[in-house]
Write a sequence for this structure.
């Protein structure tokens, strides 16, 4: 799958069944509850969940900070994998994002829970370092913890 030194990855055990993790990821009303580290909030502006469909979130922080994140779903394997990118928007239209990446999220059964792996691929080392310096591990890690909390409490 290319040059893995350009990737950032988090692999975590999530103490919730895979079906609940999948639901937390694929229901935009639930997604907005965990998608960005609290106390920031997420608005889901588009969630057209199919390859080529728009995936657009807008985050706002308590200090007035904002992060606009339009993107596009590339591939979906139900209950197993979601791939999306910031380099396209809905309908496969090219974009010029503030941070260019493609994310591959996988979910697999692991005992009573789920092995959740988020791998984020970058076009070059500068972009990978920039994403890491912006707090990739802390931010995405906090979101996975929030995902776990939400997934454990949905039916």
């Amino acid at each position: 799958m290319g040059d893995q030194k350009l990737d950032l990855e988090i692999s975590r055990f999530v103490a919730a069944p895979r079906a609940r993790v999948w639901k937390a990821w694929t229901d935009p009303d639930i997604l907005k509850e965990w998608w960005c580290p609290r106390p920031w909030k997420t608005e889901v502006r588009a969630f057209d969940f199919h390859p080529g469909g728009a995936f657009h979130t807008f985050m706002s922080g308590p200090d007035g900070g904002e992060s606009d994140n339009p993107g596009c779903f590339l591939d979906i394997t139900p209950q197993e994998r979601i791939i999306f990118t910031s380099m396209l928007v809905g309908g496969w239209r090219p974009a010029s994002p503030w941070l260019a990446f493609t994310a591959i999220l996988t979910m697999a059964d692991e005992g009573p829970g789920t092995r959740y792996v988020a791998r984020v691929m970058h076009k070059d080392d500068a972009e990978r370092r920039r994403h890491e310096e912006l707090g990739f591990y802390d931010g995405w890690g906090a979101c996975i913890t929030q995902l776990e909390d939400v997934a454990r409490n949905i039916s």
Observations:
- The mean pLDDT is 96.
- The beta strands are 7-14, 41-47, 54-60, 66-77, 81-85, 88-89, 93-94, 102-110, 113-121.
